UniProtKB/TrEMBL annotation, chain A:
<feature type="transmembrane region" description="Helical">
    <location>
        <begin position="58"/>
        <end position="74"/>
    </location>
</feature>
<feature type="transmembrane region" description="Helical">
    <location>
        <begin position="206"/>
        <end position="225"/>
    </location>
</feature>
<feature type="transmembrane region" description="Helical">
    <location>
        <begin position="257"/>
        <end position="278"/>
    </location>
</feature>
<feature type="transmembrane region" description="Helical">
    <location>
        <begin position="231"/>
        <end position="250"/>
    </location>
</feature>
<feature type="transmembrane region" description="Helical">
    <location>
        <begin position="448"/>
        <end position="465"/>
    </location>
</feature>
<dbReference type="Pfam" id="PF02653">
    <property type="entry name" value="BPD_transp_2"/>
</dbReference>
<keyword id="KW-0472">Membrane</keyword>
<protein>
    <submittedName>
        <fullName>ABC transporter permease</fullName>
    </submittedName>
</protein>
<feature type="transmembrane region" description="Helical">
    <location>
        <begin position="407"/>
        <end position="436"/>
    </location>
</feature>
<keyword id="KW-0812">Transmembrane</keyword>
<keyword id="KW-1003">Cell membrane</keyword>
<dbReference type="InterPro" id="IPR043428">
    <property type="entry name" value="LivM-like"/>
</dbReference>
<feature type="domain" description="High-affinity branched-chain amino acid transport system permease LivHM N-terminal">
    <location>
        <begin position="20"/>
        <end position="74"/>
    </location>
</feature>
<dbReference type="InterPro" id="IPR001851">
    <property type="entry name" value="ABC_transp_permease"/>
</dbReference>
<feature type="transmembrane region" description="Helical">
    <location>
        <begin position="81"/>
        <end position="97"/>
    </location>
</feature>
<feature type="transmembrane region" description="Helical">
    <location>
        <begin position="20"/>
        <end position="38"/>
    </location>
</feature>
<dbReference type="InterPro" id="IPR021807">
    <property type="entry name" value="LivHM_N"/>
</dbReference>
Length: 495, 254
């Protein structure tokens, strides 16, 4: 605090009086607000309600507001660098300082972080003489370079994903989070076909996830079908539901299309909820069989008579982790399958037609593209992948209920696609790590994790409005030795 | 698809069945009648132009040929077949390619990808040959082939739109206002290419234009449209000399 004050004094041209007045006024407002809200607290003592005071917290809050305001003013007046340093110091100090409550600590750190970010923005704005457009282009080039690097980042990521269960830090919870993230990566890649490539805003993708999950659960429940039989069946049923929904819906455009898919997602959930005799209603379906090792062996400690367990098959000691690791590899393979499919189909006429459709559907018609069929194909294929993911979800959980398929799931999957940059495969991975991984990693922060999650989303949309990796890869190479991206960058730089 | 290519030389006014015949076509936007009984025809190997003021219904006629919107009354006959009720994408497959108004290229796709989109309905294996042909017509596109469509200049985008339409190996090329928003020098280049396509490849061209002077100079025959009706027709030279055409579309403007 004194650092800021003395620094401010040293700078000529800064009206210290006005600054203190403004900060004092803000502090006064903070005092008026925090005194009743923070300072007084009702506590149950025995059967009586008494009031305790927390004036120390009020004092700290008001002080923080005062200092924060000065920081904002200094940033505004062009002293961003010292503000950045001080706010970072404050953030670190707040981490270790003996503050009266954890909430105060979180608020202090968050406030300092916001201040630091604003200072960074201010510093960069002062330093760079580039126009907004030039800066956007620079970011695009960066995005292109990142995706160029994807040539080796991709394989490295896959190798890492394969090695993950055998890393020393791979506890059960790490592998579980890995499974969760991979499930969302798969869903994101699936939805990317509809939203990212074909440009159709689908707000009800979770419906196909639900169809897949319930297909497996019900087929196993009523007919005793195994997972390996149900996996393709669930995909087929989900694809069929996509086809059935697609026919009437795909004539709609834009917002209307989005609303109908939203409705479809809810219809599926409500049907599952109310058709209690068949689906178990709100109680869901429990006891969904776990997947076996390709139908050869299962993962029980003591298999039933006449069957063999996984650990016996390989002559190793029983470990409950075997099943988890198997599930992990299963979803990894499924997700990579979706990725491989999308990468291939982008280079085929169908995939290219999807992208063209996203850009300009009138032009597409004038080129002889049957819009309805193309859209239907995107919708059905994405639904099928959603169905695969759903049946995986069912077998992993062992229990499903309509609770798992609410609109928020659709929203999260869509957020992954949009944040990643529509149509970008690597972007989906990065976004899934952020959207799913971060809240899981910061579970200790309890309810504040959703707060930081929201802030992260806002920041991404402010800095990268078209998504993290919005750069689009050309699908054909001219001279295989040089990358198409590089050629594009070169020729556009010369344009 | 019949594999017969039309003659390699421009043969104006040939007798027999015209390539495209429009008979008494009425098109409506809701309750508004945009075309009020249009009759016209295009012979194989011709360049035919349709001129007229803003809102006369020129683009509507072009779109009606492609079936979007559909003609409410009347017939559109292409190579002897009634295509009035044929779906738009199927019409393109039968050999009519369109370079739509406002160019409508795919901005985020590269030039090469745009051209590839054009060949989506073409016979398999024709891509390389057609690409070579388009690059010969528009060397600029070859220079820019790895560039995103959206970063091209207006003239280059127009070249791309025409090139993309040509990639589908059409027998009839529909062009909607290729001169729209372009500098006079570029307009000249574009019209030169249209002439080349017709003369060297025997491509039949139906050209909708506001730039009446250039269009009529280029075209073998022309039609003038006023308020959804064809009011005048004749050879390009005749129309250029016509007093009505001169006062309405040529004088003052050029």
């Amino acid at each position: 605090m004194t650092a800021i004050a003395s620094h401010a004094n040293a700078r000529p041209g800064l009206n210290v009086g006005a600054m203190l007045k403004e900060a004092g006024l803000t502090a006064l407002v903070a005092l008026a607000l925090t005194f009743p809200l923070v300072g007084l607290r009702t506590v149950d003592v025995g059967s009586r309600l008494t009031i305790t005071t927390r004036f120390d917290e009020v004092l700290i809050s008001v002080l923080l507001v005062f200092v924060g305001r000065i920081g904002l003013i200094l940033t505004r007046e062009g002293h961003a660098l010292p503000v950045l340093v001080v706010s970072l110091v404050v953030a670190v100090a707040a981490w270790f300082a003996p503050l009266p409550s954890e909430i105060l600590r979180v608020i202090t750190i968050a406030g300092a972080a916001v201040l630091a970010i604003r200072a960074v923005i201010a510093v960069r704005r002062d330093r760079s003489t580039l126009s907004q457009q030039e800066r956007d282009r620079a970011m695009d080039r960066l995005g292109a370079r990142v995706q160029d690097a994807a040539m080796w980042i991709g394989p490295i990521a896959v190798v890492f994903a394969i090695a993950l269960p055998f890393m020393p830090f791979a506890s059960r919870s790490v592998v579980d989070i890995g499974i969760l993230i991979l499930t969302y990566i798969m869903l994101g890649w699936g939805l990317n076909i509809v939203v990212g490539l074909a440009g159709l805003l689908d707000l009800g993708y979770v419906a196909f996830y639900a169809v897949g999950a319930y297909s497996y659960a019900l087929l196993a429940h009523y007919f005793g079908f195994s997972f390996w039989l149900c996996l393709p069946l669930a995909g087929l049923l989900a694809a069929f539901s996509g086809l059935v929904l697609g026919f009437p819906v795909l004539r709609l455009r834009g917002d209307y299309f989005a609303i109908v898919t939203l409705g479809f997602g809810e219809i599926i959930r409500v049907v599952l909820l109310n058709w209690a005799v068949f689906t178990g209603g709100p109680n869901g379906i429990s006891g969904i069989p776990r997947p076996s090792f390709f139908g050869i062996a299962d993962f029980d400690r003591r298999p039933p008579e006449g069957e063999i367990a996984f650990h016996q098959l390989f002559g190793i000691a029983f470990d409950p982790m075997h099943r988890i690791i198997f599930l992990y590899y299963l979803i990894l393979v499924l997700a990579l399958l979706v990725n491989f499919f999308t990468m291939r189909i982008r280079k085929l006429p169908l995939g290219r037609a999807w992208e063209a459709l996203r850009e300009d559907d009138i032009a597409c018609t004038s080129l002889g593209i049957n819009r309805t069929n193309i859209k239907l194909a995107a919708f059905t294929i994405a639904a099928m992948f959603g169905g695969f993911a759903g049946s995986f979800f069912a077998t992993r959980q062992g229990f499903i209920s309509p609770e798992s398929f609410t609109f928020i799931e659709s929203a999260i999957i869509l957020a992954i696609v949009v944040l990643g940059g529509m149509g970008s495969q690597i972007g989906v991975v990065v976004a899934a790590l952020i959207v799913i991984g971060l809240p899981e990693a910061f579970r200790e922060l309890a309810e504040y994790r959703m707060l930081t999650f929201g802030m992260g989303m806002v920041l991404i949309m402010v800095w990268r409005p078209r998504g993290l990796l919005a750069h689009r890869d050309p699908t054909i190479l001219l001279h295989p030795r040089r990358s198409a991206r590089q050629q594009q960058a070169d020729s556009e730089a010369g344009a | 698809m019949t594999a017969v290519k039309t003659g390699t030389t421009a043969n104006t006014g040939s007798t027999g069945e015209p390539m495209l015949r429009i008979e008494g076509v009425h098109t409506f936007y809701g309750s508004i009648e945009a075309l009020k009984g249009v009759d016209m025809q295009v012979q194989a190997g011709e360049i035919v132009t349709l001129i007229g003021a803003n809102g006369a219904g020129k683009s509507t006629l072009l779109m009606t040929i492609c079936g979007n919107p559909r003609a409410k009354f009347g017939r559109v006959v292409f190579e002897g077949e009634d295509i009035t009720q044929v779906p738009t994408f199927e019409i393109v497959r039968r050999g009519i390619a369109q370079s739509p108004e406002g160019r409508r290229i795919f901005g985020r796709m590269t030039v090469l990808e745009n051209l590839q989109m054009g060949s989506i309905t073409a016979q398999p294996g024709s891509f390389d040959r057609e690409l070579e042909r388009v690059y010969t017509l528009f060397p600029r596109l070859k220079e820019r082939q790895a560039q995103r469509g959206g970063t091209l200049s207006g003239g280059e985008q127009q070249m791309l739109a025409i090139g993309r339409a040509l990639m589908s190996q059409p027998r009839l090329l529909l062009l909607d206002e290729p001169s729209l928003g372009l500098a006079p020098l570029i307009v000249k280049q574009i019209f030169k290419v249209i002439e080349d396509i017709n003369r060297e490849q025997g491509m039949t061209v139906f050209l909708v234009e506001q730039n009446a002077f250039h269009a009529l100079k280029l075209a073998h025959r022309g039609y003038v449209m006023v308020n959804g009706n064809i009011t005048l027709q004749g050879t390009g030279r005749e129309l250029l000399a016509n007093e009505e055409v001169r006062t309405a579309y040529l004088e003052g403007g050029h």
